[in-house]
Amino acid sequence: PARSAPPPSSVDDDNTAPKSKMTLVYALVSRQKTVLAEYTATSATGNFPTVTRVLLSKIPPADGRMTYVYDEYVFHYVVENGICFLCMSDEHNRHRVPFAFLNDIKNSFVQRYGNEVPQRAIAFSLNEEFSRTISSRMEYYNSAGSNVDGLSAVKNQIEDVKGVMVENIERVLERGEKIELLVDKTDRLNQQAFQFKSSSRELQRAMWWKNARWAAFLTVAGGFAVFFVAGMFCGFDFHRCKAQ
């Protein structure tokens, strides 16, 4: 069941939020549902790519900004001239860092490609080049964390984000889309369970072969030891024992 939407939030929430390290784990640039470039941190797991694709179909092309919450994911986006800049963070009540990051990559994107190239670019045609920019800026803002407002280099880039609404993504999804996300999440859990079961079988098989090799080695070594001891007493051709 859909949870009730949290009340409108503003940048003032950052002052009351714990000063733990902000983590941005995913970001993309798209023209409506056509993703032009994206980057995912190596630590990110879950079905958020599926959630993102569904969310992109719900974001209006008009200029604006908003924050959506889905399970443990928090999605922030800025739309300008029909181009959407979206990121995912791990904090529900802090907006300054994600929106400063989005504003930063937006300026870099526009400076590099202008307003016309993105309008005719095909899916992922800008990914090879711009994903590196997303990665470096994400690393920068993750390192800066809650101190981003105090950095003179970016202080002037942080626009006023008061009035940015925070809404549960389930409120804008159709029933079929909710089922699709639930099925995707279930599939991922099943895949993880299967991988764990497969890994357990492989480990068990590897341990069995290891024990078998040790048993064979000990058997051969024991045989050589018996032969060597017998050879010491009877001679290695056993002539002394035969003579007796």
Describe the structure.
By secondary structure, the protein is an alpha+beta fold. It is 50% helix and 16% strand. The chain contains eight helices and six strands, in the order αββαβββααααβαα. The protein has helices at 13-16, 48-56, 96-113, 117-120, 127-144, 152-155, 175-234, 239-243; strands at residues 24-31, 34-40, 64-70, 73-80, 83-89, 166-168. Strands 2-1-5-4-3-6 form a six-stranded mixed β-sheet, with helices on both faces. Helix 3 (96-113) packs antiparallel against helix 5. The radius of gyration is 30 Å and the shape is rod-shaped. The protein starts with 12 loop residues before the first helix and ends with a helix. The model is unreliable at 1-20 and 152-159 (pLDDT under 50).
Sum up the structure in keywords:
6 strands, disordered N terminus, alpha+beta, 244 residues
Strands, helices and their partners?
Blueprint: H1 13-16, E1 24-31, E2 34-40, H2 48-56, E3 64-70, E4 73-80, E5 83-89, H3 96-113, H4 117-120, H5 127-144, H6 152-155, E6 166-168, H7 175-234, H8 239-243
Parallel strand pairs: 3-6
Antiparallel strand pairs: 1-2, 1-5, 3-4, 4-5
Helix pairs in contact: 3-5
Number of strands: 6
Q: Tell me the strand order in the biggest sheet.
A: 2-1-5-4-3-6
Report the sheet with the most strands, covering strand number, pairing sense and barrel closure: 6 strands, mixed
* SSE pattern: HEEHEEEHHHHEHH
Which bin fits the share of residues in helices?
40-55%
Average pLDDT taken over every residue? 74
Query: In angstroms, what is the radius of gyration?
Result: 30 Å
Strand content: 15-25%
